[in-house]
UniProtKB/TrEMBL annotation:
InterPro entries: OxRdtase_Mopterin-bd_dom, OxRdtase_Mopterin-bd_sf. This is Sulfite oxidase-like oxidoreductase. Pfam families: Oxidored_molyb. It comes from Deinococcus sonorensis. Residues 33-183 form the Oxidoreductase molybdopterin-binding domain. Signal peptide: none annotated. It comes from the Bacteria.
Length: 204
């Protein structure tokens, strides 16, 4: 069953590997639908819903503080990948440039092609979350994020299953109640904490 690139965790790696997960040294691609191709210069992130409407372009994002972080990622399809390195704008840094309106409690993240995923503001506005445009298997090999992995820019939310890390991000819609995104409507958990094994929602 386990492919040659996967290995069972020797132990729980000091609690780093969530229940039911297997380590991989590869970086599997999981995309629903076609892969869009456009340049970093053409990235736009539209802010709408319960926030002052505005659109960030690459030049706006580039002018913000840039952050490089190394951490583990966990996919609901049972692979985890340790020590991935990402460079981008942290969500708290981005949010310093966003004016929320009263009542905003959640965000619907939108991607080119129509993919969506929902997050509470508590899960969204965290120091480790990045709008990332560079990735490295190691800190020494950081390079522009490959198209298949969400390049030119994706969200990375490492504390939740990787379906929350929307690739080809182009919009943040602030909303007043939780609502399901694409996979959440199709049976995945509304929050998706890997350490709580929150894979599927109540509907399944
Ligand atoms: N726009 C978009 N973002 C997406 C997806 C997608 O299909 N479209 N798949 C999600 C899922 S289910 C996972 S596991 C990760 C996979 O990211 P990867 O292909 O870089 O491994 O992206 C997430 N973000
Ligand atoms: Mo996934």
């Amino acid at each position: 069953m386990l492919g040659r690139f996967f290995k069972k965790p020797a132990d729980d790696m000091d609690g780093r590997v969530p229940p039911g997960q297997t380590l991989t040294a590869r970086f599997p691609v999981l995309t629903y639908g076609p892969v869009p191709r456009y340049a970093l210069e053409d990235v736009t992130v539209r802010i709408f819903g319960l926030a002052e409407e505005q659109t960030f372009r690459w030049s706006d994002l580039q002018a913000m503080e840039q952050t490089t972080l190394t951490y583990d990622i966990h996919c609901v399809t049972h692979w985890s990948k340790l020590d991935t390195t990402w460079t981008g704008v942290s969500v708290p840094e981005l949010m310093r440039h966003v004016q929320l309106k009263p009542g905003a409690t959640h965000v619907m993240v939108h991607s080119v092609g129509g993919y969506t995923t929902n997050l509470s503001l508590d899960d969204f506005v965290r120091d480790l979350n990045l709008l990332a445009y560079r990735f490295g298997e190691t800190p020494d090999t950081v390079a522009p994020l490959e198209t298949e992995h969400g390049g030119p820019m994706r969200l990375v939310v490492p504390h939740l299953y990787f379906w929350k890390s929307a690739k080809w991000i182009n919009g943040l819609e602030f909303i007043s109640a939780d609502a399901p995104g694409f996979w959440e409507r199709n049976g995945y958990h509304m929050r998706g904490d890997p350490f709580k094994d929150e894979r599927y929602g109540d509907g399944l």
